[in-house]
Amino acid sequence: MNQRWWIVIAGCVAHAVNTGLSYFGMSAYFPSFEREFGWSRTAISGAFSLARIESGLLGPLEGYATDRLGPPKMMFIGIIVGALGFLALSVVNSLPMLYAVIVLGIVLGSSLGYNMPISVIIAKVFRTRRSFAFGIYRMGPGLSGPIVPVVGWMIGLWGWRTAAVASALILLAVSLPLASLIARTYKHHQAAPNEVPHSKADVASESHVASDPEFTLREAMRTMSFWTLSIAMALRHMVTEGVSVHFVILLVDRGWSTAAASGLLGISALIGAPARLGMAWLGDLFDKRRLIMGLLISLGISVLFMGWTSHPYLFTTFMVIYSLAYGGLASLQEPIRADYFGTRYFATIHGMSRSVTTAGTFMGPIIAGFFYDLTKSYALPFALFAFVSLLSTLCMFMAKPPVNRRT
Predict the structure, then answer these.
(1) How many CA atoms lie less than 13 Å away from 199 in the CB half-sphere?
(2) Class (C level, CATH) for 5-186+214-398
(3) Is 148 helix (H, G, I), strand (E, B) or coil?
């Protein structure tokens, strides 16, 4: 096996552990915060939404720092920050402190240590089979499924504070060795950057590689494609962030235990894993933009019915559709951005795009919490999310590939 694939495999595993603890697993803490402190769901949702501001405010700086310092250094910095965030979570005693811990600890560490640097490394190392490589990497959140019920189990057995400490230790024990492997492999690739095609798929994509654009940030921001693509992703994140944060508490309202609801969220993540890989494989063969549009329509339909029905079998059926659409969308967003704007300034462009998507990711959890507090039901906010998915589809339709004026 070509050595570069170890980057993808190690990145996938690290991404799985981080996502299971720092993203999906955080929803398992929601009922405990509400029960212990008596905070409203809008207030608790604000902590998760405020975390998304980190991506917007610091995303461009994170991208610039990654381009300047190099992805390996940023990985180690982020892993330490994320672990310290979980340790700080274990002593939270006020709402402002919860906000600060999630934003400046857990989420910032996740972004610095996993999302940004590993995505940059894959985009640079894989000129051929790029979508497929991202698909394997993005299987991580899907494979994180079994970790989510473990978080719920730890909370139920030890309490949420001890569970936070355990999460910090797990994060360090798994992520540091994997980051070392990625750093060594990336260094070897930089020393011998010439990539020889090893398969028919690699050979078939060489014509595409030869025409890879190399937009600067300023050039990218002058294109309509940058803005329509970023807005489409912002609306998509509004939906998935809102659903993910409220998924466990929604099921608890319907009579599920925290452990059982966390388990179903884990199953949802696991279901999305094959879609991440399958859509990534299709992304190397077909128009990524049209694939994304189809997935957005499926996402909207599934969310509408998840908010409407409390029947376990119907809910689970549409949850499966939602999970497959969510997984497919997650694996295509970086490859299409690399295809549109190139990889030379990928981190900087990616970071700036995240500053645009912040509005959507910030509003999603708050919208769900606000309308639940208003109506005591998730039917209305999930119906709004379905409409937002259609708007995202329209933006994606307008996000045509930009013209590379230097070619």
Answers:
(1) 7
(2) mainly alpha
(3) helix
Distance separating alpha carbons of residues 153 and 361, to the nearest angstrom: 28
pLDDT digits (tens, 9 = 90+) for 155-194: 989 999 999 999 999 999 999 999 999 999 988 877 665 5
71 CA to centre of own chain:
18
Phi-psi region of 104 (alpha: psi -120 to 50; beta: other; left: phi over 0): alpha
DSSP codes of every residue in 348-404: HHHHHHHHHHHHHHHHHHHHHHHHHHHHSSSHHHHHHHHHHHHHHHHHHHH-PPPP-
Name every residue whose Cβ is closer than 8 Å to that of residue 170 and which is 6 or more positions away in sequence. 17, 21
**CA 380, CA 371: separation in Å to the nearest integer?**
7
| 304-to-241, 299, 320 alpha-carbon distances in Å | 15, 9, 13
Between CA 53 and CA 338 the distance in angstroms is 23
* CA separation for the pair 294, 254 (Å, rounded): 31
CA distances from residue 29 to 109, 154, 324 in whole angstroms, order as listed: 19, 11, 25
Indicate whether this model's pTM tops 0.85: no
Structure tokens at 342: 């190139």
Q: Which is nearest to 114 in space by CA: 12, 37, 40?
A: 12
- Output Rg (C-alpha) for the chain, integer angstroms: 20
Task: For residue 232, give every residue at least 6 positions away whose Cβ sits within 8 Å of its Cβ, in sequence order, or none.
Answer: 292, 296, 392, 393, 395, 396, 399
The whole-angstrom separation of Cα 86 and Cα 287 is: 40
Sequence ranges of the domains in the chain: 5-186+214-398
CB atoms within 10 A of CB 32: 16
The answer to whether 256 touches 267, Cβ cutoff 8 Å, is no
Q: What angle do CA 87, 91, 94 make, to 5 degrees?
A: 130
Count CA atoms closer than 13 A to 168's CA, side-chain side. Answer: 19
Return the minimum-mean-pLDDT range out of 180-184, 323-327, 349-353: 349-353
Q: Which amino acid is at 177?
A: P
Report the C-alpha gap between 183 and 69 in whole angstroms: 13
Burial classification of residue 100, based on how many CB atoms lie within 10 Å of its CB (0-12 exposed, 13-18 middle, 19 or more buried): middle
State the Cα–Cα distance between residues 392 and 390, nearest whole angstrom. 5
